[in-house]
């Protein structure tokens, strides 16, 4: 066999494209533009000059800035050569102005803004902004990836208002890019009731505080809105907004997600859905306290029969009922039978009768396409959740080793885990293989037995290379780490950047030796 070293230029274009696609357009342009003619030609192709990402997003959600020398070369040499090709730019806070003023960008229509503080972000959406003409006349698609610790509800709402009032040509606004369940939200007040008008916007993806905020956005001020994706913090039974029966003829897609229990299914959710008679796609995810199950019959009679044009229906619905109110013989087969002749997707189902007198009946579309799964129990073992990143575990039966082994495979992208279970594990076997959680960033132990702390902090039980945030009771952490001396937990603990306790703690002297990466 020949020992000849293969040069990059010996490879066919098809192989080069595979390699360059892994680098991303920023590094392809920086490395290849104005180089050898063949590589320069590839770099200038529309595939690499159409969209450029100037942000570096780290695994813990932080944003790193571009090297100043690289940025200088882009602004002085590269962007002036390809500016007429660029349609999409992703920017972080330190480089936005320099990049957008480096050339004309006649075809730029999309901005993705990453890691901005509310003050800096708002300053660009004013009449004095150096990029105001671009925002007003040219930008049609805006996505904000915000850091939760920088925003509160007031600043989040203000930024929403500024964008909608300044970006007159904007047709797409996504301001729900945070992966965290507890995030800043849009909320109406006396000031905002007279703002947020747009004649152009047709797609809005947003987080709101309460259901009234959702009704507010659908009161006609966004008159051409055809797609609304809204995450509501809570759905209240009573509304301060005048009840409207007006049909939402323009709305073709609607997605509603609420992570908290609500009793307002019939009086709020169903009533709003009755106004959406032209929907083609509907997505629902919520947890309802009521006296009977929500099944295929209920969905058909209360919602779907009013939507004759509906083509796609995705859902994740859990009904929480007092056990005495339900049929003791009600089974998953009984629920599945109500979906016979169901024209949408396959349906998964679980029923849990907990020892506290509460029954959960959980129904969801398969394949599961949501990113959150609240109240995952031992009963759900047969399905796959490829897009889920945020999970809450709850049960009144122990979570054993085989459950976590299944979870690692069934939820491969898991990043945020909340665990609530008082009961100790029963099957405490030795020599169990280590379970990988390759993307897990944060674990919250809320009312959790200490066995589950061992399950995730012992490096022989869990491989957690990305774990950086831990919320836990101090006494449990003290015990598991043996006063911060236990070697088997030190590997997983030494990478932690943030520890969250419910109480104020005076740490022992050697505490930071055990947690060297903690933010001080």
UniProtKB/TrEMBL annotation:
Highest rank taxon of the organism: Eukaryota
Protein name as it appears in the record: F-box domain-containing protein
């Amino acid at each position: 066999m020949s020992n000849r070293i293969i040069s990059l230029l010996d490879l066919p274009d098809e192989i080069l494209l595979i390699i360059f696609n892994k680098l991303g357009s920023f590094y392809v342009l920086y490395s290849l533009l104005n180089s050898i003619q063949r590589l320069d030609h590839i770099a200038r192709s529309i595939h690499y000059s159409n969209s450029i990402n100037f942000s570096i997003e780290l695994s813990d959600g932080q944003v790193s800035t571009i090297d100043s020398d690289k940025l200088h070369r882009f602004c002085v040499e590269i962007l002036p050569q390809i500016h007429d090709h660029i349609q999409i730019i992703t920017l972080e806070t330190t480089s936005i102005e320099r990049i957008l003023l480096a050339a004309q960008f006649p075809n730029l229509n999309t901005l993705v803004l990453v890691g901005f503080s509310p003050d800096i972000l708002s300053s660009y959406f004013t009449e004095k902004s150096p990029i105001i003409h671009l925002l007003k006349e040219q930008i049609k698609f805006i996505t904000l990836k915000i850091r939760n610790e920088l925003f509160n509800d007031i600043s989040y709402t203000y930024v929403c208002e500024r964008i909608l009032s300044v970006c007159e040509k904007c047709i797409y606004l996504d301001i729900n890019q945070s992966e965290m369940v507890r995030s800043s939200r849009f909320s109406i007040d006396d000031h905002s009731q007279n703002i947020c008008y747009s004649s152009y916007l047709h797609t809005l993806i947003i987080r709101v505080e309460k259901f009234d905020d959702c009704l507010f956005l659908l009161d006609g001020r966004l008159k051409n809105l055809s797609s609304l994706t809204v995450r509501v913090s809570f759905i209240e039974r009573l509304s301060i907004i005048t009840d409207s029966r007006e049909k939402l003829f323009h709305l073709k897609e609607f997605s509603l997600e609420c992570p908290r229990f609500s009793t307002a299914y019939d009086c709020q959710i169903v009533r709003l859905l009755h106004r959406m008679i032209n929907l083609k796609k509907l997505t629902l995810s919520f947890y309802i306290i009521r006296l009977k199950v929500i099944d295929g019959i209920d969905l058909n009679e209360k919602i779907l029969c009013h939507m004759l044009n509906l083509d796609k229906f995705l859902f994740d619905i859990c009904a929480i009922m007092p056990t005495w109110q339900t049929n003791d013989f009600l089974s998953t087969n009984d629920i599945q039978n109500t979906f016979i002749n169901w024209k949408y997707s396959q349906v998964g189902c679980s029923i849990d009768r907990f020892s506290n007198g509460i029954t959960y009946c959980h129904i969801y579309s398969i394949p599961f396409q949501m990113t959150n799964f609240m109240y995952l129990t031992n009963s759900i073992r047969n399905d796959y959740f490829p897009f889920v990143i945020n999970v809450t575990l709850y049960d009144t039966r122990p979570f054993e080793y085989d459950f976590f082994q299944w979870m690692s495979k069934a939820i491969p992208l898991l990043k945020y885990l909340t665990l609530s279970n008082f009961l100790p594990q029963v099957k405490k076997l030795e020599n169990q293989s280590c379970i990988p959680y390759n993307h897990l960033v944060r674990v919250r132990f809320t009312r959790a037995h200490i066995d589950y702390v061992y399950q995730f902090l012992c490096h022989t039980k869990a491989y957690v290379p990305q774990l950086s945030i831990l919320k836990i009771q101090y006494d449990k952490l003290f015990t598991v780490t043996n006063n911060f001396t236990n070697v088997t937990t030190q590997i997983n603990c030494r990478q932690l950047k943030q520890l969250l306790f419910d109480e104020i703690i005076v740490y022992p002297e050697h505490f930071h030796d055990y947690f060297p990466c903690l933010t001080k």
